[in-house]
């Protein structure tokens, strides 16, 4: 986007959202997806901690994985006249109407951990997310390096259908392995980001692939599905991490436990602290009236067996997720 256009957009957004309560005593409504994964539970608890640190009154609505519940919650927050609304959007599309309602009520919206497809990106103030395409790419590149030219059939456990991380992590992984004709994704199905679905779908993959003997690697869009799949691999009489390589995303404590036991190989970290940068952006916006950048990117770090997974597990296990 041209510089002048950016300035214009920033000014428009600032004018559109001007006139909120002072930074102290802010009330923020957070439409959370649910509790499908360990990472999600961590994001909810970290959000509460970050709000408390800043004296912000945070109201969390659990949507139980349903967009319609999120839309209801957002309308409820608008009716209550909260100072800002945070949304972790379960899917990428279908937000324009409700976001227009929030905008008309002059309530700024900040997206957390997932992005949306919208007709106009001035319907939200900023998005605090990782680069989910990059996460998939890092996982794919790790696999290319690890199998070093050997033929490798990959099974993929996708996240929630229509969600931005599922779309992007798939795309990124395909980019990551594009240069390696020895690596092929042979099966790909959603496990909905849950441990139980990850296990169930992996059981099907194992049956369909010669009891798992034809599978070289599992790529899961999150650690919880990987942990469920690891259980399925063990029940099929194979060794996860050895007979079938396991690479996933999130870096939750349980995957480090699996890595320390040699049952998983790599994970790409996604910080559960999306709310902290969002509160800071909101406060700065209120204090100086300037719109934050449209994307506040969080870091993604690859962890492998070389990173002392036992030590990382010990450090992370007390963090409540
Ligand atoms: O949007 C982030 C993803 O949602 C996490 O990777 C996954 O665990 C969660 O359910």
From TrEMBL:
Q: What is this protein called?
A: ABC-type sugar transport system substrate-binding protein
Protein family: Belongs to the bacterial solute-binding protein 2 family.
Query: How far does the signal peptide extend, from start to end residue?
Result: 1-23
- Where does this chain mainly localize? other
Location comes to: Cell envelope
Q: Where is the Periplasmic binding protein domain?
A: 30-274
This protein's record includes keyword Translocase = no
The protein's UniProt keywords, in alphabetical order, are: Signal, Sugar transport, Transport
Which organism does this record belong to? Phyllobacterium ifriqiyense
Task: Spell out the SUPFAM superfamilies in the cross-references.
Answer: Periplasmic binding protein-like I (SSF53822)
